[in-house]
Amino acid sequence: MREAYHVELGQLAEELANMCSMSATAMELATRALLDTDLGLAEQVIGDDAKIDDARSSCEEHAYALLALQAPVATDLRTVLAAIHAAESLERMGDLALHVAKAARRRHPNPVLPEQIRPYFSEMGRVAVELARDAEQVILNKDIDQARSLEEADDEMDDLHRQLFSVIMEKDWSHGVAAAVDVTLLGRFYERYADHAVSVAKRVVFVVTGRMPGYAEDEDV
Amino acid sequence: MREAYHVELGQLAEELANMCSMSATAMELATRALLDTDLGLAEQVIGDDAKIDDARSSCEEHAYALLALQAPVATDLRTVLAAIHAAESLERMGDLALHVAKAARRRHPNPVLPEQIRPYFSEMGRVAVELARDAEQVILNKDIDQARSLEEADDEMDDLHRQLFSVIMEKDWSHGVAAAVDVTLLGRFYERYADHAVSVAKRVVFVVTGRMPGYAEDEDV
Asked: In this complex, is the C-beta atom of A77 within 8 Å of any C-beta atom belonging to chain B?
């Protein structure tokens, strides 16, 4: 049983890593759609979201099968449950990329972002994609040090998010209320995406170290 | 084993129902803190959030113990996993109430909401608390019809959320960008809270009917 368990757990890890890659691509394309006012890319992200949802269902079904057939206990049990939680976070990251793509589509052919704000989203997009790609590596390599580096990238995201808010709140904001509302929600989507990526990495750290991650709330704006 | 399993599952359901009650109270008090600019109530919600986090940990530990000791399969297994997911959603509802309370504290002694906007939040608060209380009843009574009525209340929340956005986006919005940003985020907190309450109810429907709920994305604003 132990051997079968480890083979199946390895497959589950590969499925999760693949979900990281899919959510990273979704956020990469959604950010380009946002920055370049590219309707085709936005549509692609919107169309592809169902694939991430399917990958999560498949991951969850495999985890269920593993629980039912192998009845793991102790750390093995927690490992499979961590995988179920990670799949949920990754599906949510896909949804957040989808929201970005829908914002780009909703305002098309107009850009969503005022010119002044574009650099923040260019950076937030870069950090978000980096986080998802790092989480993929953490899953594949079970590299705890890399998991810790995700927290640094998440701090970078939080900094960008705070800077973004101070720009919106400045007295000389000249882009109107509608743009401020769009930028507020988009900023939150990127920040939540980063939180979920960190949560995925923490679950993997737990799988490797056996230490249960805390339930940190997301950062307040 | 079957008898022990059902006793433990009953205890797990009671813990989840108790978490519903705690998140309902948190949102009720947070909404009053927001509407009445009441710092004491805001502090109470902020201080009590750790209890909801603890309740989730406890719920999860009991579910893990149930899995490890009883090794349930088929529907029994899915039931326990549904409980783990429901506990996660309920903890998140507590976090969202916490965000509302923190917004009230951040702007104190000033009100967060322009007078014109207060009725929307009064209604959104009422619907949010109703949803959490209904989810509690669904868990305790396994009443599928009541679970479906949650979807109607969620539609009501989505309508309120849409109306709120049209008010913010109107040309005669006179409360400035900072208030628009606060209202945008607060509106999203209530809408997400409602989505999570519906998700809890759907999990319970699944436990009763054996039909797997879909993974609906949250509504776009």
From this structure: yes
Range of the domain at B68: 2-209
Environment class of residue A23 by beta-carbon count within 10 Å: exposed (0-12), middle (13-18) or buried (19+)? buried
Tell me, what CATH number does A140's domain have?
1.20.58.220
- Going by the DSSP 8-state scheme, the letter that residue B175 receives in this structure is S
d(CA A53, CA A91): 6
Are residues B124 and B54 in contact, defined by beta-carbon separation less than 8 angstroms? Answer: no
Please report the ipTM that was assigned to this predicted complex.
Answer: 0.91
Instruction: Give me the total of CB pairs closer than 8 Å, taking one residue from chain A and one from chain B.
Output: 76
Whether residue B92 lies inside any domain: the answer is yes
Give the closest residue to A114 by CA, choosing from A43, A167, A158.
A167
The pLDDT score that the predictor gives to residue B215 is 45
Q: Taking CA atoms, what residue in B is nearest to A164? A: B181
**What is the mean predicted confidence (pLDDT) over B19-36?**
98
Query: How many whole angstroms from its chain centre is CA A152?
Result: 15
Quickly list DSSP for B3-63.
Answer: HHHHHHHHHHHHHHHHHHHHHHHHHHHHHHHHHHT-HHHHHHHHHHHHHHHHHHHHHHHHH
